[in-house]
Amino acid sequence: MSFRRAWPALAVGLVLASPALADPAIGKRVDAVFADDAVTLTEAGKTVLVYRTKPLDPAAEPGRANYVGALYAPDGTALTEDRPGDHPHQRGVWWAWMKVQSGGKTVADGWYMKGLSYFVREKRFLGDAEGGGTLTVDVDWMVNSGPELVYVATETTKVTVRPLKAGARRVEFDTTITSRLDALGLGGSEDDRGFGGFSIRLVDPEHLTFSSGGKTITPNGAAITAGSSMGFAWTGGETSPAWTVGLACKANGQTITRWMLYSDRSMQNCVFPGRAPLVLKKGEALRLQETVVIRPVSRKKP
Predict the structure, then answer these.
(1) In percent, how much of the chain has pLDDT > 90?
(2) Is residue 173 part of a domain?
């Protein structure tokens, strides 16, 4: 199969930061700090998350970009880990598929970062009147598994951090992936689990508990059908985060209710589309929307 040579405008990303509209006297607004390889979102000077826009080691891992490397609770507790020793391909918060296809043929693997690179063309931040703010990144997907780079998709991702409310933090992700190919396929793992799509690598997964729709969920090594959201909590005593994490996911406006969950050292995933790839015609788009809510846990002392 041959690909037409296509080159995106790999211009230097624009850094456009707009002043937040909230009253400066409040002193608690969400803001952004731009660096060459990352954008750090803060609230009242404390780091909320770090969005990695370039790989730390382009030669070894050119595809390790375009994801949240670190997500923090309001008290500064790290809730995610990036490049863990047990699964070094896993990232803090990311979206990827094992099967990236052109015309039905797999040409790259975004999950294991083989044959696919992300070029962030533009990054900008806009504050809002409530004190929150949105980081927007425009990204080009490039397949590099063949003799020439092939421009396969464009992506626009918006990450919105809402101001703290009753000690809880809300982070919203909104990603639109638009095909540049006649038939771009995105599919999950080639097994019954079919995992792929939006994923989060939470710290200390061995002590995680899971709940959905008011019911306890027990991971069993397979994809589980549950409710429209999943709750994660730690039971490791004083060494585990004193926070809960709630996650809800949508794809093209439809709620995702299939989950790949692990209580050992691995990631958590809202499964989409599954093993069989979703195929986008040229100009068609996939929209992914996720909401993460971080709430404090009250731990009573004996």
Answers:
(1) 87
(2) yes
pLDDT-derived band of residue 16, with 50, 70 and 90 as boundaries?
Answer: very low
* Residue 82 lies in domain: 14-296
52-93 per-position pLDDT tens digit: 999 999 999 999 999 999 999 999 999 999 999 999 999 999
- What CATH number corresponds to the domain at position 61? 2.70.98
Q: Is the CB of residue 260 less than 8 Å from the CB of residue 223?
A: yes
Q: Is 273 within a domain?
A: yes
What is 137-192 written as a DSSP string?
A: EEEEEEE-SSSS-EEEEEEEEEEEEPPPBTTBEEEEEEEEEEE-SSEEEEE--SSS
Tell me the DSSP string of 44-88: TTEEEEEEE-S-SSTTT-TT--SEEEEEB-TTS-B-B-SS-SS-T
Q: Are 235 and 207 in contact (CB under 8 A)?
A: yes
Query: Which DSSP helix (H) or strand (E) runs through 293?
Result: strand 285-296
Please report whether residue 198 resides in a domain: yes
Peptide bond into 8 cis (omega under 30): no
Which pTM was predicted? 0.90
Q: How many domains is the chain built from?
A: 1
* Structure confidence by residue, pLDDT tens digits, 150-181: 999 999 999 999 999 999 999 999 999 999 99
Q: To which residue do tokens 């195929």 refer?
A: 279
The answer to whether position 81 is within a domain reads yes
DSSP 3-state of 25: helix
